[in-house]
Amino acid sequence: MANLQHLTTEYQNRMNAVFKYIDTHLNTALTLEVVAEIAIYSPYHFHRIFKVITGEPLTVYINRRRLEKAAADLMHKPDIAITELALQYGFSSNSSFTRAFKKFYGVSPSTFRVELPGKFSKIRQPKSKNGQPNFLFERYLWSIQELKNWIDMNAHITTVELPELQIAYVTAIGHTKVKEAYQQLIHWATPRELMQQPETKMITVYHDSFKVTDPDKVRISAGIKVPKNTKTEGAVATTTLPANKYIKGCFTITLAEFEKAWSSLFIWMNEKGYKKADANPFEIYHNDFRTHPEQKCIVDLYIPIQKAI
């Protein structure tokens, strides 16, 4: 297994294809054989590599993704039926989905929907004596009104239509791995003179929400904007962020204020009656915070939203 750890860069691009496939086929039978074929590996070889990269066996990862996606839908899609969610994410029945959800989050889907949106966060859930999360309904770190006041003073918010954005990226599994992912990306981009281009922007894409996913399992893309048809290699891959309508929040904030900024922006979205689209939120950075006199980031936060019918 130790030898595999030195080869994760070689395997990462195939794993990126696997992550995308799983996310778009959660309602199907995602067997080891089917997913291994996407990675172009034998099931035995793929199983070992996948566990090294993600820290989880394939079946555990798939089950977690199904439950987390369902939890996100419960927060952002108040009209969707729980029975529909069960079928959408590959569960054989409403009862099997409810049992799995309650085991994972500590509450039923219906309770989660009613009591937890806006309050629930995997970041700050305390542990019980047996090491499992203790899902008591904790008090907000900031009240909703405080967050609304804070965003009024610290952000300029608009809705914008963005064209497709082509990015080169390195995948990070867990929030502590983002710095390493950016180092890999910059090491690749610098000799290609991509970092010197004025249109180059660093972009962080969040495939998971910290409200429903443990921080050490959140999948994040550390990326930069690149021209179309840019060729990549090793752990660096390319993807396209879709053309869409977005809520755009412009901030000048410290690193410690990012969670507050995201929470506030989602509250603003709900207050204004917008609904989140299925695409991923992301950040675009406009400076190196280390050169800012107050160590602040000049950053735009984007939440994809559904267009009015």
UniProtKB/TrEMBL annotation:
Keywords assigned by UniProt, alphabetized: DNA-binding, Transcription, Transcription regulation
SMART domains, alphabetized: AraC_E_bind (SM00871), HTH_ARAC (SM00342)
Keyword Transcription regulation: yes
Coiled-coil segments on the chain, per record: none
Pfam families assigned: GyrI-like, HTH_18
Domain HTH araC/xylS-type stretches: 16-115
PROSITE patterns: HTH_ARAC_FAMILY_1, HTH_ARAC_FAMILY_2
Keyword Transcription regulation carried by entry: yes
Gene3D superfamilies associated with the record: Homeodomain-like (1.10.10.60), Regulatory factor, effector binding domain (3.20.80.10)
Highest taxon above the source species: Bacteria
Database matches in SUPFAM superfamilies: Homeodomain-like, Probable bacterial effector-binding domain
Annotated protein name in UniProt: AraC family transcriptional regulator
